[in-house]
Amino acid sequence: MAEKKKLVQAITSMEEDFAQWYTDVVVKAELVAYSTVKGCTILKPAGYAIWENIMHELDKRFKATGVENVAMPLFIPESLLQKEKDHVEGFAPEVAWVTMGGGEVLPERLCVRPTSETLFCDLYKDIIESYRDLPKCYNQWCSVVRWEKTTRPFLRTTEFWWQEGHTAHATAEEAEARTVQMLNIYADFCEEMLAIPVIKGQKTDKEKFAGAESTYTIEALMHDGKALQSGTSHNFGDGFARAFGIQYSDKDNKLQYVHQTSWGMSTRIIGALIMVHGDDSGLVLPPRIAPTQVMVMPIAQHKPGVLEKASEVRDALATAGVRVKMDDSEKNPGWKFSEQEMRGIPLRVELGPKDIEAGTAVVVRRDNHEKTAVPIDELAARIPEILEAEQQAMFDRAKAHLESHIYDALTYDEFKDTVANKPGFVRAMWCGDLACELKIKEDTTATSRCMPFRQERIGETCVCCGKPAKKLVYWGKAY
Amino acid sequence: MAEKKKLVQAITSMEEDFAQWYTDVVVKAELVAYSTVKGCTILKPAGYAIWENIMHELDKRFKATGVENVAMPLFIPESLLQKEKDHVEGFAPEVAWVTMGGGEVLPERLCVRPTSETLFCDLYKDIIESYRDLPKCYNQWCSVVRWEKTTRPFLRTTEFWWQEGHTAHATAEEAEARTVQMLNIYADFCEEMLAIPVIKGQKTDKEKFAGAESTYTIEALMHDGKALQSGTSHNFGDGFARAFGIQYSDKDNKLQYVHQTSWGMSTRIIGALIMVHGDDSGLVLPPRIAPTQVMVMPIAQHKPGVLEKASEVRDALATAGVRVKMDDSEKNPGWKFSEQEMRGIPLRVELGPKDIEAGTAVVVRRDNHEKTAVPIDELAARIPEILEAEQQAMFDRAKAHLESHIYDALTYDEFKDTVANKPGFVRAMWCGDLACELKIKEDTTATSRCMPFRQERIGETCVCCGKPAKKLVYWGKAY
Hints:
2 copies of one chain form a homodimer.
Chain A: H1 2-8, H2 18-28, E1 32-34, E2 41-43, H3 45-63, E3 68-69, E4 75-77, H4 78-81, H5 85-91, E5 96-101, E6 104-112, H6 117-127, E7 136-145, E8 159-169, H7 172-193, E9 199-202, E10 214-221, E11 227-237, H8 239-244, E12 247-249, E13 255-257, E14 259-266, H9 268-277, E15 294-298, H10 306-319, E16 324-326, H11 333-342, E17 347-351, H12 353-358, E18 360-365, E19 371-375, H13 379-403, E20 406-408, H14 412-421, E21 425-430, H15 434-444, E22 447-452, E23 471-476
Parallel strand pairs in A: 3-7, 15-16, 15-17, 20-21
Antiparallel strand pairs in A: 1-2, 4-6, 5-6, 7-8, 8-14, 9-10, 9-22, 10-11, 11-14, 12-13, 17-18, 18-19, 21-23, 22-23
Helix pairs in contact in A: 3-7
């Protein structure tokens, strides 16, 4: 009965209480369990399977650009963390400290990595000597720890899972090109695989990564109109190289500092998947990333021939490369349908005695509940097309939602009114001063999300102070 | 020059100093780097790529038996670790303690997981209610921390990478079957993929896992005659279930305790790969697990047509499914060959102007240095066969080495003499008493490796005390 209890209760409507809806989906789609460890969650099989697919696809895209995977230590000695001033100031307040090991108090405390720039620098310092050793493009898949006071599964947890890429280059130009290249990989991945349209841009100095010269970001818009930073790529210039002494001898045998980048995407992106595509029936997964794409549902399965035909259909779909399962449990069909919908499985194929007699099955799309009768012997050919159509429709819908929730503000009154009343992004001109950024946050709770790569001039003066404008900025309330 | 310095120096001969040979290979094949974090190593790209292949293959085999992956927290609260008495006694002395987080002293200290039985139990307690929820077969890929005073890459490090599977079953029989099933998966994986023959058996009570009813193990023999425990599978009975209160209602609606197992294989197995197959030229990787199986070596590559032909060969091999690279660096061929040998790449294909004229290439096997002239247009067909032959030969060689290093001892003098003078396993009868096990270790430094599943009676009395014998045991010095 445990299984049933979890799924039968209706979830909170998203219009009524979006935050509660989110929590309900995360728990009832069995993506996550809360653990006894404060701030830490468990990724259950359904949640981890999504992460596995994300890892697999991103890893392939990274390796195609020459990235190699490594595994770095979990711990960072305090003295190493302190080597780059801005970096330690950014992270020290939120780290966990190991002070005892093997029954003894440690001579130097170790932090559990919140990110691994310092460890990679420490390695690069040792293994880079000549221009022939460059570039180095390493990545690792791991979990990191940043102490949090509140917990929201995927969005804000003390421990989270991610990849962190760290590269070292001979020139500033190469480092800049790599920073942009990786941001583009994240953007393409989000759009192509997750059906999530994103805005690409640069973070302001206030919002950039601790120790970076510049941080690039992709920002996505959730169903409730809040923004979610979905992946970042940082150009460090030679700042870390100078702090750690990472030098190479160039072709003229002169010592030069390397230029570095780092870039990361985390399990946070699963939060985006849920909040961009989900609905009041639960999770809606884009077919390309869904661990199970199709659930075959035998109807009246005790009747002769039904289970056999359903199994045949399942096998034919599997052979066609579809990730398919069959639900032949004893639950009633309505129940099974609700479960499949809650779990976000993109298609179900209903197959009962009458369907078999008629030689057709009913295919139901998760995203729009559209039903199509498909001849049974055409299922293996048609279903991959229907999955692709669903993927495209989900992207188009998310894109339309994004575009219809971007507002231009030319005056500060208009800006404040928009932030207060229209969930979404507000585009406005900015003078570049921290003071205005802080005032805007203070007045509206909106933060600068990014200075988009595609700059336009929608006005000549800063929306906040009226001084000459330097940049167009996307502002918004954010997760 | 950094690159060259690392590889050009000759490594220590394995006959001269096996421990130094091992360290040389690990460093010069660029598998591992030592980190500034005491006891922790870095898996460099060449080392991590082996681990990726191991993970990929094991994961596939696990999933084929219904195992699902999850991700559990990195931390275990002290009170949770203490719930099972034997378990905490086994692990508490070697854990790392987090005592501060987010700038504050924690109300309860957290250990960095040394293994995750307690976390899985804590989850299972919540999600198992009915017999319908069973079995649960979860696994995770992660790193764990056990404080070590000495460091040997792959063999003994404070942090290491592994998988840990944790299952819960309705009956004792099912748990026992799963324990054996997973041990067999490890054994088959070692023999089929790593070309490492193993002895399967049960650990004595002294050597079993802290909290287990029984521990099964696979033991491999290294080139120097020492044993390496290469994978273990534990049956917990209902001990953890009683400590954590993990109960389900059976078909008659009666509450029952679950029966549990856990099983793990770690990066330690890479140490076995090195020490079973390596030679004085460096690493020797079995083709099925090697990240790069073939290195194409253009000779006199400045001459017209050489690089073109070599690229064609590389592309044809890649198309045939071979993991192939081409070394077209400016180094001289002797140098390139040494590097390829040091890195353990199973085959090289030498291709120079004369070869091209004659329409043949020279294929050189890493394991036995055997050279074969193969018509260039037959390479794509022949090389997969040569790789398979090499895989088989490596297994046969390791198997012959194992079998020729197993000795039977009928008296204690014979036993002591064998341990002292003949590296390998000693088979001897044992009365089952801890006292004899301790005495043997004290007298000889040999430990009981396992009570093999294939029991024989090679005598009637314990080799140590002369009392009636209960079990045949494999003894040996071990890593």
